[in-house]
Amino acid sequence: MPRRAPRVKPGRSQNGLPSGNIRSMSNTFDPRGPRPTELTYNSYLMVPELLELQRPQSNPVHNDEMLFIIIHQAYELWFKLVLQELKNALECMKQKRVLRAQHFVKRTVEIFKVLVQQIHILETMTPQEFLGFRDKLMPASGFQSLQFREVEFLCGLKEERYLTFFKDRPEYLERLKARLAGEDLASVFLEMLHAMDYDVPQGAKALLLKGDEAAKGKVLDALRSIYEEPETELPLYLLAELLMDLDEGLMLWREHHVRVVERVIGFKHGTGGSSGVSYLKTTVDKKAFPWLWEVRTHLIPRP
Prior knowledge:
This protein has one domain (63-135, 144-270, 283-298): Up-down Bundle (Methane Monooxygenase Hydroxylase, Chain G, domain 1). The chain contains 14 helices and no strands. The protein is mostly helical and 303 residues long. The N and C termini lie far apart (77 Å).
């Protein structure tokens, strides 16, 4: 007996999908292409404009200058996203939304893993090749990356001396001054602990910077209680560990940056006038959350 054809519900195809979806899918792959007014991949991402932003200074254009420009432009795009995610994390901590704060810090940590790996692409450029266009970069310098300084300030690594590098750009200077005076992850994390009834003094970060030993003792005691019994306050423990991952990511990025710079230019001075590798080495051990590192020294074994 021949099989009966399956019944098809009104508005549905034989595979069970809404028939309207099939029509829309066929339109999506219309060989005639999108209409001029339709959103496309290229118009959404502004690809034509993006590809016009690489403007080498060497003439004739040195092949590796394009590599140099694209890597640093990619960094600035990632920094833009990092700033957005860290601001989200900060706002969540202010609201004591610990798990949601973790989400944004975790994303930032993953981005820094990409940043650390990305810098090694520069090692495919030989020292001699870099010298072919390096003099054209002066006096531009990585010191002038506003967004990287904002990332540091937002984490809590605030150094007023960096404002000097933006004195000729008033709009950048005001933006960085606002970040210098504003809230940061390090201070807000401690304020969150205070708001959650841990014996952490209000304004703890400012007290720590002043060397207040009593405040430091209370901060370390609060963190010990979280680290020695992580199951009791698991969200806080996980957030603290992610902040450690973030701090470590920043440190690893600096460390890898130093090694790549030394490999490419040795101990030449930086294009912006710094001492180059010698200066960069002094930044490697900067910590945004030093008390999270220190608490490990004070942990004791469980009974």
